[in-house]
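[recover] target loaded
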């Protein structure tokens, strides 16, 4: 398949190019587009055949449900049995934005979207290109991250091109994404609101509205017998090609452990990549050293993480040693992605 790549400026949206994209969606094709979290791989969310193509292009497991993207709260009504009061309040406060709500699904949502579950995941993105595409297509758009399943999510059009060239009809290049991590997934379908995936909207922000907010205990752990409530959380994800270890604890101890281990790996002939921060960068002398940004600015770290994992894939690196971050604010989402990238290989120091 030929993939058309087009550049669209979020602040001056080219109507002609958008119409081309909409035509593809209406005909059951695939369009990769920017959102404020990561790039999405979009198809008409109410067309089962079109949605099937997403799973094929990504190599995504069939039991991992997709998020439906909407441009208005009006559009949510036909997708769900009801909108509970708490959902109404959260939508008002956080949409458009990086948070997805799980609600009881209606019959018009195809089974392939929900992987047969009785809930559906819905989000209103903030990126203007994404919103306009959904509005013009006049249908909810199913859009998981636009990467081959298991690889780090794409935060620029080049990442999408690397993974999906020849597998999708169009890639819209709208520049780098702002948040850089996927949306928070919040389950509002039961009695107890629960965060199933940490993301762009933090637990601290949610607690202001839902003081007793719960968080799925599997989020920061991985291994035998731990079953996450969100199917996508059980897969190896965001995985760089090299083996990866995340160090968790006091920053001084982290630096010491990474320095010691870099030496040890070098001695047995392995090339080491170090993911560090601006504050600690100068403390390492060996290995391929790359900073995520300042520890004081988790937004920057979130924005850079996936790009760094992909950059390291381009180097001849056998093992990645990464500094963990504190679990406040975006730190939970950052550590969740790092832990998954490392297949649960986290060392407390
Ligand atoms: P992605 O779009 O690839 O970032 O992944 C969407 C995330 O939402 C995955 O972790 C899914 O497992 C999760 N998700 C989507 N729909 C549901 C659902 N009905 N129940 C639980 N988790 C869901
Ligand atoms: Mg994904």
């Amino acid at each position: 398949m030929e993939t058309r790549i087009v550049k669209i400026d979020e602040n001056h949206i080219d109507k002609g190019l958008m119409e081309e994209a909409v035509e593809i969606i209406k005909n059951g094709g695939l369009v990769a587009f920017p959102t404020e979290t990561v790039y999405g791989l979009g198809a008409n969310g109410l067309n089962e055949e079109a949605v099937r193509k997403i799973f094929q292009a990504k190599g995504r497991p069939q039991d991992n449900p997709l998020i439906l993207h909407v441009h208005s709260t009006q559009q949510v009504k036909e997708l769900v049995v009801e909108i509970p009061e708490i959902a109404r309040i959260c939508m008002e406060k956080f949409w458009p934005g990086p948070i997805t709500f799980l609600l009881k699904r209606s019959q018009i949502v195809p089974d392939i979207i929900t992987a047969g579950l009785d809930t559906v995941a819905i989000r209103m993105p903030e990126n203007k290109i994404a919103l306009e595409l959904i509005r013009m297509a006049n249908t909810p758009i199913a859009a998981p991250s636009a990467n081959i399943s298991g690889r780090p999510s794409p935060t620029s059009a080049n990442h999408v091109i690397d993974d999906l060239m020849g597998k999708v009809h169009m890639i819209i290049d709208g520049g780098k994404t702002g948040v850089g991590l996927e949306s928070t997934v919040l389950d509002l379908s039961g009695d107890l609101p629960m965060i199933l995936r940490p993301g762009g909207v933090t637990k601290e922000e949610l607690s202001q509205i839902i003081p007793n907010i719960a968080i799925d205990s599997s989020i920061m752990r991985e291994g035998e017998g731990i079953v996450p409530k969100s199917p996508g959380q059980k897969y190896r994800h965001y995985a760089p090609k090299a083996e990866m270890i995340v160090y968790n604890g006091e920053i001084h101890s982290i630096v010491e452990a990474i320095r010691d281990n870099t030496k040890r790996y070098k001695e047995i002939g392995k090339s080491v990549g170090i993911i560090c921060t601006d504050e600690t960068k100068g403390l390492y002398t060996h290995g391929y050293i790359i900073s995520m940004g300042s520890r004081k600015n988790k937004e920057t770290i979130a924005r850079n993480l996936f790009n760094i994992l992909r950059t390291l894939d381009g180097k001849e690196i056998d093992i990645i040693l990464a500094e963990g971050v504190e679990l406040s604010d975006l730190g939970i989402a950052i550590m969740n992605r790092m832990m998954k990238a490392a297949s649960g290989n986290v060392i407390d120091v």
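[recover] notes: The mean pLDDT is 95.
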